[in-house]
Amino acid sequence: MLLSMLLSAMGFFGAVYCMIMSSLGLEQGPLCDTGDGDYVYPFRNQTLEESYLFNQTTWDICKKPKDVVLWNVTLFSILLVIGALEAVLCLIQVLNGLCGCLCGTCKRQRQTDVT
User: Fold this and answer.
1) What is the pLDDT of residues 39-93, one digit of tens each?
2) Which one, of 57, 52, 50, lies nearest residue 41 by Cα?
3) What pTM, to 2 d.p., does this model score?
4) Inter-CA distances, 98 with 7, 14, 69, Å
5) In b/e form, how buried is each residue of 6-45, taking b as 16+ CB within 10 angstroms?
6) What is the pLDDT of residues 13-42, one digit of tens each?
7) Distance CA 109, CA 79 (A)
């Protein structure tokens, strides 16, 4: 029970790490060619009001690879949702293991003597 709780806690922290990395990937935007041959992060220092996530007309800044902004938004959004779901499930498993460790089982084991 304790091992299950510890492994679920590790899974929870892994899910939180996945959510942080996904949100940073969404916030910074993709690495793309803007037409001059150099690969840069064109959306890196934008404020929330001018974010590329809410203004699809700015997606045309990235010339190569084709549709990289759509790929970036889709990938990191899916990872963010999956990480949140994993964090919830692991937290439930940690709480279940904690209740199992503290409360134990309600049934008493009867010992039978075989003679």
Assistant:
1) 888 888 777 777 888 888 888 888 888 888 889 899 999 999 999 999 999 999 9
2) 52
3) 0.77
4) 12, 19, 43
5) eebbebbeebbebbeebeebbeebbebbeeeeeeeebbee
6) 999 999 999 999 888 888 888 888 888 888
7) 45
For residue 107, what are its two tokens? Answer: 């049934």
Q: Tell me which amino acid residue 10 is.
A: M
Q: Using alpha carbons, list the distances in angstroms from residue 53 to 5, 14, 19, 97.
A: 38, 26, 17, 40
Cα separation, 52 vs 73, whole angstroms: 10
Which residue intervals of 1-115 are DSSP H helices?
Answer: 2-28, 68-103
Nearest residue to 21 (alpha-carbon basis) of 79, 73, 68, 78: 79
